[in-house]
Design a protein that fits this description.
The complex is a heterotrimer of chains A (about 270), B (about 260) and C (about 270). Chain A has 10 helices and no strands. The radius of gyration of chain A is 25 Å and the shape is flat. By secondary structure, chain A is mostly helical. Chain A has 2 domains: about 50 residues; about 210 residues, MetI-like (MetI-like fold), CATH 1.10.3720. Chain B is about 35% helix and about 25% strand. In chain B, the strands form 2 sheets. In chain B, strands 6-7-8-3-9-10 form a 6-stranded mixed sheet, sandwiched between helices. Chain C has 2 domains: about 190 residues, P-loop containing nucleotide triphosphate hydrolases (Rossmann fold, 3-Layer(aba) Sandwich), CATH 3.40.50; about 70 residues, no CATH class. Helices cover about 30% and strands about 25% of the residues of chain C. Chain C contains 9 helices and 10 strands. In chain C, helix 8 packs across helix 9. The chains are: A mainly alpha (about 270), B alpha/beta (about 260), C alpha/beta (about 270). Chains in contact: A-B, A-C, B-C. At the B-C interface, helix 4, helix 5 and helix 7 of B face helix 7 and helix 9 of C.
Chain lengths: ~270, ~260, ~270
């Protein structure tokens, strides 16, 4: 290293450490700051606007309710959480299998693609009342609704991934006379795994919203149901509390997908 | 022939941050470029040649060192006001797909705010120099790889820069097209008399077009500066039969192989 | 004269697109003897990559026949395993699977062909050592540079000891210095193993440096225009590049290939 660079090395090291520290701190601090600011503005707006509690609640009251009334929330949190979990896992499995079949069998792919696209945009929630009529009020309807709404996006993303494997990789498998099965599991699936995970993360969002909407529509247990109950008793703080717990569950499932991806996908494309 | 100095690099260093560690890419580079030269820089991949080009052309700022141009000394890289003195040709053509060939050339005029009929005429002139005058209104996706690169070259020249900088301009093309374009490049240099700095990894290409060859090693240091005195008359399809060419080629091949070890 | 290893008879490949029919290969007749090193050279789009893919059963020909060791393979829906295992294909890019280590990538043929004996593991060790990759064997492709990756691509095709190596512009994407180095290494491997090699390139000097014979191809339609036998002594070395005879062959080939029309729109 030349003398000039050597002399200025100390300065550069210090500068780099400083930049590193700042970026580490801000990546955690900024989101938290954002939420705190949001809550502050909300709180002040309600107080200054002198809104009645039956119209809208404030963060201080909401958080208080979430802590004090926790025993009320808990069974509903468990119910909603487990419904989403069951529905989402089933949706992911069905979605990936369908995506694989559609990518490998061209005829199946062209036949089903319009219906998959349709299912992605169709609000299944509009069918839920009808489903309750056919199947009776109960948890089955909720889980089936979750699956119906969430599997299509997994199918769409997965099959896109499977069909976009670099041609050269497939050629490699062909040159080795690999069977369709070998080509799928040893080449197509690992190549497309990022697409599969993207589909799973999006589907977690659908699963959460569908679950809650289905509960709102005809359940007595679950956070969605709690929202309705709280509305009836004009406990806006409990309403918002339920909504916040729903949001926390949604974020949890998203982060779960991320963690799973980090564990399974240790390579860089 | 007396040559005028165009620009001088003094003590140029470039250090990249890699997390908490650093990567020294260029260390104490000193280089003088004469007007009208055709300089070729040879070197293995990743040794810093591209970074050096970007610093010369004002796209990157050096960590340390100064650049002298027109009696002005720049301590923090080429300032924005002087960017129009340079024309850049990249390895990937970087043409805007939604603009026709001539509109791609106009892009440079728009960026440097050069208006008027004199500049408009240059668009036509540059297209003629690269032989694409009939393709002014064609879109990039309809052109072959070689034609796209020639458009890139025309674009880099349209704003009348002092220096044309080329970073492995024919690297992405097949050897046959590449060979043909090298000859065209020599032609363009003769016609425009511009100062040219080109990075290449082909010794033959360097010997065909350049007036001076610099060899860079893996650490980003110049280990050899050779004047290419193969006569211009001999630089055609039969260049491989020229004795001086073969002498220099052997010499450069040896230097290059030493670096690889 | 040595036996015919690979032979094509009036081989044709037509690609049907929405706008036009593309004659990628028209009436190709090639005959490669056992142990020969033959190059196919030509500009982009002349069908050279298509021909070797048809030989290795990656693409099916539109018409014509292919014979490997005298046996016709074009009538099969999928060529028999024994014939397929005689061939190894090396791609233009390393084409490694990023989720496998270097060693696992090299040994992928074993996984697919279900070859499980110990001897093969030792052969993989040998190949890794020959390519100077022993210390990298447990690394992942993302941690390795381009020139090194292409070596992995080469030895991967050799792991099942094929009698024929099909190489599709294997060093085209590398810088000139790395390419020259690998060219010499390939000649070394070829000499040691006695494999038959079909080498595709668009670099005239590379073709003359490496091969016994060169087939020159043209575009529109893709077809063989000329066959040239190279009367140069073996072993070949990089010193050859400045010799007169070598340059003469290069000039001849360049003229055969003709002037790629740089002014032709795609």
């Amino acid at each position: 290293m030349s003398r000039m660079l050597d002399e200025t090395k100390e300065k550069r090291i210090i500068e780099r450490r400083r930049k590193n520290r700042i970026s580490k701190i801000s990546s955690v601090a900024m989101p938290i700051l954002g939420i705190v600011m949001l809550f502050l503005i909300w709180e002040l707006w309600v107080i200054l606007g002198d809104f009645p509690t039956w119209q809208i609640s404030r963060p201080s009251l909401i958080i208080r309710s979430m802590l004090e009334d926790f025993e009320l929330y808990w069974p509903n949190i468990v119910r909603t959480f487990t419904s989403i979990l069951k529905g989402w896992v089933a949706a992911c499995l069905i979605g990936v299998v369908m995506g694989a079949l559609m990518a490998n069998y061209a005829l199946l792919g062209t036949t089903l693609t319009p219906y998959i696209n349709l299912l992605c945009t169709l609000p299944v929630i509009t069918l839920v009342p009808m489903m309750y009529v056919f199947m009776g009020i109960g948890r089955d309807v909720i889980i089936i609704a979750i699956i119906l709404q969430s599997f299509a996006i997994v199918t769409m993303n997965s099959s896109t991934g499977f069909m976009n494997v670099p041609v050269m990789r497939i050629e490699l498998m062909t040159s080795l006379r690999a069977t369709k099965r070998q080509t799928f599991f040893q080449c197509m699936f690992p190549s497309a795994i990022n697409n599969v995970f993207t589909g799973m993360k999006l589907s977690a969002i659908f699963a959460t919203t569908t679950c809650v909407a289905a509960e709102v529509n005809g359940s007595t247990v679950g956070l969605g149901a709690l929202v309705i109950e709280a509305k009836t008793y004009v406990r806006t703080d409990q309403m918002f509390g339920s909504i916040l717990f729903i949001a926390i569950i949604g974020v949890f499932f998203y982060m779960l997908s991320d963690a799973l991806e980090a564990v399974l996908v240790k390579w860089k494309e | 022939m007396k040559m005028k100095e165009l620009m001088r690099l003094q003590g140029i260093c470039k250090v990249f941050d890699k997390g908490l560690d650093e990567l020294v890419c260029l260390d104490d580079i000193n280089l003088t470029i004469q007007e009208g030269e055709y300089v070729c820089i040879l070197g293995p991949s990743g040794c810093g040649k591209s970074t050096l080009l970007k610093i010369i052309g004002g796209i990157e700022k050096p960590t340390l060192g100064s650049i002298v141009m027109d009696e002005e000394v720049f301590e923090d890289g080429i300032p924005k006001s002087h960017l129009k003195d340079f024309g850049f040709v990249f390895q990937q053509h970087n043409l805007l797909e939604w603009r026709t060939v001539q509109k791609n050339l106009r892009l440079n005029l728009e960026i440097f705010r050069l208006k008027g009929s004199v500049w408009e005429k240059r668009v036509e002139e540059m297209l003629e120099i690269v032989g694409l005058q009939d393709y002014a209104n064609i879109y990039p996706h309809e052109l072959s790889g070689g034609m796209k690169q020639r458009t890139g070259i025309a674009r880099a020249l349209v704003h009348d820069p002092k220096v044309l900088i080329m970073d492995q301009p024919f690297g992405a093309l097949d050897a046959i097209t590449r060979n043909m374009l090298s000859y065209e490049m020599l032609d363009i240099w003769k016609k425009t008399q511009k100062t040219m700095i080109m990075v290449t990894n082909s010794v033959e290409e360097a010997l065909l077009v350049s007036s001076r060859i610099l060899v860079m090693n893996k650490k980003g240091e110049f280990i050899s500066k050779i004047v290419n005195d193969v006569p211009l008359k001999a630089r055609d399809e039969k260049i491989a039969y020229n004795d001086r060419y073969n002498e220099l080629r052997k010499k450069l091949d040896d230097i290059v192989h030493e670096i690889q070890e | 004269m040595k036996a015919s290893k690979i032979r094509t008879e009036n081989l044709n490949k037509v690609f049907h697109t929405r706008h036009q029919d593309i004659y990628a290969v028209k009436d190709a007749n090639i005959d490669i003897r056992e142990g020969e090193f033959v190059s196919l050279i030509g500009p982009s789009g002349c069908g050279k990559s298509t021909i070797i893919r048809m030989i290795d059963d990656i693409i099916k020909p539109t018409s014509g026949s292919i014979y490997i060791d005298g046996k016709e393979i074009t009538s099969y829906k999928r060529i028999p395993k024994e014939i397929n295992q005689k061939m190894g294909f090396i791609f233009q890019l390393p084409n490694l699977f990023p989720w496998l280590t270097v060693r696992e990538n090299v040994g992928i043929a074993c996984r697919i062909y279900k070859i499980r004996d110990e001897g093969t593991q030792r052969y993989i060790d040998e190949l890794l050592e020959m390519a100077g990759l022993t210390e990298y064997q447990n690394a992942y492709p993302a941690e390795i540079s381009g020139g090194v990756m292409q070596r992995i691509g080469v030895i991967r095709a050799m792991v099942h000891k094929p009698e024929i190596l099909l190489m599709d512009e294997p060093f085209g994407a590398l810088d000139a210095m790395t390419r020259e180095k690998l060219d010499m290494e390939i000649l070394d491997i070829w000499k040691k193993l006695g494999t038959t090699v079909i080498f595709i390139t668009h670099n005239v000097e590379e073709a003359v440096l490496l091969s016994d014979r060169v087939y020159v191809m043209g575009t529109n339609p893709g077809r063989i225009t000329r066959e040239i036998t190279l009367d140069l002594e073996r072993p070949r070395s990089l010193d050859l590049l400045t010799e007169r005879k070598f340059q003469d062959y290069c000039a001849e080939l360049t003229e055969c290939i003709g002037h790629v029309d740089l002014r032709k729109v795609k």
